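Structure in, sequence out. Go:
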């Protein structure tokens, strides 16, 4: 079997799984502004979700989980979009993987993550992180290693609250799942040179549009191009 797995056609899956399959396709048709169509009409949802659609029930749940974690930042009482995007940058460095960077370098800076922090994480220069950035980085690393200290836990709970910390930890593990799925099924990645180019673009955009670090309530919007490239969630 070649990788990535191809998106199955609707008629090849069990009838009882058609609602799950159709829900995912409908979501992507809306993203692509493709208009309505009969469910029997084949529609490609992109490399990553196309691969997941080999299990429509799992794919539908993955789609819902991604939507949940992205929406958290639109409400008070939990993590911000900048906090969420920071996880992508920490895990990309920790796992030495660029599978999510096609979308999430630009989105990180747009949401309020400092471009200097993106560069510091990639170069393993913790000394260039702010105190708050270092706290987040330490917590994320401890979570994926299964060794969260009481000191870091208490500081994070104070920062995010109990609910926020539970949701943030859930997202850390959810992104780990996504990245390992993308790597296993080879749904797309970037070279180091391509990441360098994106960082340069992000730095330029940050200066032009006066994006400043520190968070905010930026609402993410996924484009058709990003979805086709294997955007998560």
């Amino acid at each position: 079997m070649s990788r990535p797995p191809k998106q199955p056609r609707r008629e090849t899956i069990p009838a009882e799984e058609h609602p799950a399959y159709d829900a995912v396709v409908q979501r992507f048709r809306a993203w692509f502004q493709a208009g309505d169509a009969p469910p029997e009409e084949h529609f490609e949802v992109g490399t990553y979700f196309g691969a997941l659609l080999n299990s429509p029930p799992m794919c539908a749940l993955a789609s819902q989980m991604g939507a949940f974690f992205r929406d958290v930042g639109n409400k008070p009482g939990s993590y911000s979009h900048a906090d969420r995007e920071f996880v992508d940058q920490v895990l990309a460095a920790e796992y030495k993987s660029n599978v999510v960077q096609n979308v999430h370098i630009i989105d990180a800076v747009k949401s309020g993550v400092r471009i200097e922090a993106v560069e510091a994480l990639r170069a393993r220069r913790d000394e260039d992180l702010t105190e708050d950035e270092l706290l987040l980085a330490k917590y994320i690393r401890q979570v994926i290693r299964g060794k969260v200290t009481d000191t870091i836990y208490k500081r994070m709970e104070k920062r995010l609250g109990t609910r926020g910390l539970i949701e943030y930890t859930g997202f850390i593990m959810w992104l780990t799942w996504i990245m390992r799925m993308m790597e296993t099924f080879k749904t797309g990645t970037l070279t180091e040179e391509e990441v360098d180019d994106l960082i340069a673009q992000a730095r330029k955009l940050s200066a032009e549009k006066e994006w400043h670090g520190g968070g905010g309530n930026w609402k993410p919007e996924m484009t058709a191009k990003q979805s086709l490239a294997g955007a998560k969630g």
